[in-house]
Structures are given as structure tokens and as C-alpha cells.
């Protein structure tokens, strides 16, 4: 479970922004009607979903990109050797290129809250810290200072200095400690590997097979609810040729056979004819199937997931269905971006679930929620207000015929 995420100095993100899953204190009739949008942890109300809305180039995808970068550093940085340059760019203006970037994730793993953060430049890790709340009070697990010195909580990580001595300025201590079989770091590593999912999967990958077999009945029922006429889906393994990278001095491209999954669909009133999901079904049906494969794993196993423009190619009612799927389950989370203004609806999402992303005059991404507009009343039309620019995070496009003619004639 994610409680909050803070990001700073990453691509268009300049000053610290926060994505806060801890629910605001909203005690209105509409909010009470959306009680299923909120779960509880240790008496703290936590949002099941947050939607990021805003114009193109405002930084919505950069927020998800920053979170992905943070997670990949945790999972992969123990493999980094000398000479590695971290694959990101800091904010380019006002001297921020010389300042460290910062990432913080406050999350719950095995019913204990952890607060993990690190700072780095493109060349080195500067700071890192991990705190936990084992009995409701903040306690140190470890702190890594800019001068390379460490301090540790008592008895939490076995032989921590052995790990520190094997951690370079290219490695996160948390990642290195996990690779050296320390219990708490391994537990958190598995959390980021298995419980915090970054986007969708390729449905042709073999890893999808177990999920499909487990959730086939639910997928078919969901497809029925979504008004497709698919009544059955079968899956089989096939081998296809895939190109192999040539060896030095080799000029001819070679191929090898790899295993993939092929899904075949059966439609109502056409039970004797099978259709290839990839080749013969609509883009919307393929996208819905891909989302269901992923989300059913999320809702059944209490995971968190991020999806960039999850509803692209889907009818707005299918987007509604996907959010209903998240909200109907007991303990899972979705962070998504969208251009679908129909979702900016206080009868579907609480005001603190509707988050706007905009870019300042200095080109920096800023984040704020509908809840921050204290003059907004829930009997107002939030979608209409957004389109009219009341919340700023909507593009202004002068698309009149006259203005376009001037461009063409210029």
C-alpha cells in the first residue's frame, strides 16, 4: 500500500511535488456515497485510486517516469559498476542541473509503514535513508549521509557495515543489502518487485499464462459486462522466429525460435469460428483484455499499479468499469493519467482523487487536487469547470478557422 510519493528535480519536475494517497477529511454526502473509494490502514483512510489530469507536456507522464526510475534503482542499482551514468535528466533551468534529484516513497509492507528516500545526481548517489514505524513511532533503519558515513538502527539489519563497505556511490544501500541476503531489505525488494506494478504486460509473454488460467472465468464475465460478445477464450503456445543480435564481425541477421502465447476468441452465435485476439479483434477489445489480465492480479492480491493513459482506445464506459473494478475490491491502488474529462466527476471520484498537473511559466510541473480549491462546491460541474480552464490544467488551443488559415497562408 502506497501512502505518499514525493519527487523533486526530475525532467520537468523542479520543486518537490507530492502524490498523497492519504485521504482528505471530506465529510459530504457525495464523499460518503463514495466510501468504497477509500480503504483503511491503522485507522488512516487511504485512497484506492488517484487520477492525474492535465494538458499534453504538463508532466503527467514524467511523474510516472520518475516513480518508475525510483523503483528500478531499488531493483537494479546493486548491478551498477563504475562509469555508470543514471538514465534521467534533472530540471534544466535555474541551475537545477547541478542539484541532486530526490525521491521518497512512504508505503506499507507486511503491515509496517516504511519511509524510504534517496538523492542522487546523474553520476552518484548522494544520500539515502530508510525509516519504519514498528509501533507507530518513526525509527531509523539506516541513514547514509553525503560524506559517505552511515548510521543504523539497533539490530534491524545484520552486519550493516559489511553491506556499506560493498556499496559504491553507484549503488543504493537498500539494493545492495537485498543482494547480500539481509532480511528487511529483501522483504522491501520483494515488495517493489511483486506488489508495486509499473504498467501493463505484453499478453503474448509466457508469464501471463498463469494469470489467464487463474482469472479466465472472471475475464469472460468482465468482457460480458463490457458488452462484448466474446463467450470463450482459448490460449496456446506457439513458436515464432525472433532476430538475434549479430556477433562482432557477423553481417548476416540470424533468428531463433521463441515461445509466445496466442489467444483465440469465440463469439456468441459463432461458436464454431475462432478469432485471433491480436489480428482480428478491435483495439479496444485487445486493450481491455490486457488491462483485465493485469488488474485482476492487482485486485486479487492487494497490489498497487501505475498506468499511463490507461483508457486510451477505450469507450468511456469501459474506463468507468476499470475504476469500478479497483474500487470494488478491498485493498489495492491505481495511479493513472488520463485525458478523459468524463472521469472528472465528483459523483465517481472524490475531490482528493482528482489531481491536476500543470506547467508553470518557468516550465516546471506543478500538482494540486480539486480538494485544494476551497471555493468549489460539489453541486458544481467539475468537468465543465475543468474544460473552461477554472482549474488551470487544461490546454488553451486557438483552433478557430481564421487562426488556422493565417498559419496556412503564412
UniProtKB/TrEMBL annotation:
UniProt xrefs under Pfam families: AAA_21 (PF13304)
PANTHER family given in the database record: ATPASE AAA-TYPE CORE DOMAIN-CONTAINING PROTEIN (PTHR40396:SF1), ATPASE-LIKE PROTEIN (PTHR40396)
InterPro entries, per database record: ATPase_AAA_core, P-loop_NTPase
Entry protein name: ATPase AAA-type core domain-containing protein
Signal peptide: none
GO molecular function: ATP binding; ATP hydrolysis activity
Source species: Phocaeicola salanitronis (strain DSM 18170 / JCM 13657 / CCUG 60908 / BL78) (Bacteroides salanitronis)
Domain ATPase AAA-type core: 51-146, 280-345
